[in-house]
Amino acid sequence: MKPGWLMLAGLALAGACREASGRLVTDAMVTGDAITAPLTQTPGDPVRGKAVFTSREAGHCVLCHRVEGLEAPFQGNVGPDLSAVGARLSPGQMRLRIADPTRLWPDTVMPAYYRTNGLHQVAAGHKGEPVLSAQEVEDVIAYLSQLEG
Amino acid sequence: MRRLGALALLALSACGPDMAKGETGFETPQSGSAFLKPDTRALQSDDFANPGFLWVDRGEALFARASEGGPACASCHDGGEHTLEGVAARYPAIDDQTGELFNLERRINACRSRHQGEPPLEHESEALLSLTAYVAHLSRGVAIDVETGGAARPYYEAGREYFFTRRGQFNLSCHHCHDRNWGQSLRGDTISQGHPNGFPAYRLEWESFGSLHRRLRDCDTGVRAAPYPAGSDTYVALELYLAARANGLAMESPGVRR
Fold first, then answer.
1. ipTM passes above 0.90
2. How far is B171 from chain A (nearest CA, A)?
3. What are the DSSP calls for chain A, one per residue?
């Protein structure tokens, strides 16, 4: 290999490492289509999770998703109905879909809620921060797991 | 005047938008008003109730008033050779003198400095909004027909690039909502195809009249992206791409939006 190529390869590697460390969900955390291990020690709280799901300041998931019987006005339908999502997906599968869905669906409109890398033109108040904290992700999973239709 | 304007020449644009096939998520552009609740749509179509006409009427008065440094807009644009009917439907357009892309607001400010000896008006100021509303309304019913070739090409490309780039903490592009999800509900809104033909418009949420750029700032802010200033080069280029996507669609300003 010519030295030029070596240098290029080295640069690419360094780039890849920086990318991986900026990403809150690393390859090692993902098994198949799930992140099986919780992101925090404290178990998720479904009551707080429901607030994360509806509140504009937190997840505001109702922007795109509907849940039967949930008392929140104007629930969207850009994403699938989640009324029975607890029967369909395991907590680990939900964790990957909420934390970093672009890993599963590269072109999705669903935002990654636990990711800070590879973003662009982020507003000052949100720079370097994921949309939800690790605990909020666990809380919303605990809420959704109860929805079995 | 305004009642006549509504009957304006329905120019049919033969030249379709020169988009790559399937680039937009629609065959024919559909106005944002088609996605409104019936009462909001009714408010727009009633010239006596449409609050945007307050700005059109103010604009008409400003248009007729002589400036300190020179003549009134109306003394050049008196309905003869320099009539402004149908003109707004061709904006943004390249300014021959500078080779730069001008939207209506920039054109109005250029006329002020070149022909009236007046300083530029601030974007979103009452005066500029009013003049823009008046000039846009002179093209009501006229099909959008912007030029995207020649000197306009680089601006068109830059606008297109902005439209397809993911941004903000939510990591979404204009394309994700307005090409791929129009017709779907996003909380209380039905997402439209994102056309500029209703602007400047009265927005109920603003409780006021505003420019297209103000609406674009709201969309950028909605995905938690840092918005560009109204009147910025970035938004003027984006405005050209949006107009090109909407080529053939009838102008509706003053629109009424949620």
1. no
2. 6
3. --HHHHHHHHHHHHHHHHHHHH-SS-GGG-BTTB--S-SSSSPP-HHHHHHHHH-TTTT-GGGT---TT---SS---SS---TTHHHHS-HHHHHHHHH-GGGT-TT-SSPPSS--TT--SB-GGGTT--SS-HHHHHHHHHHHHT---
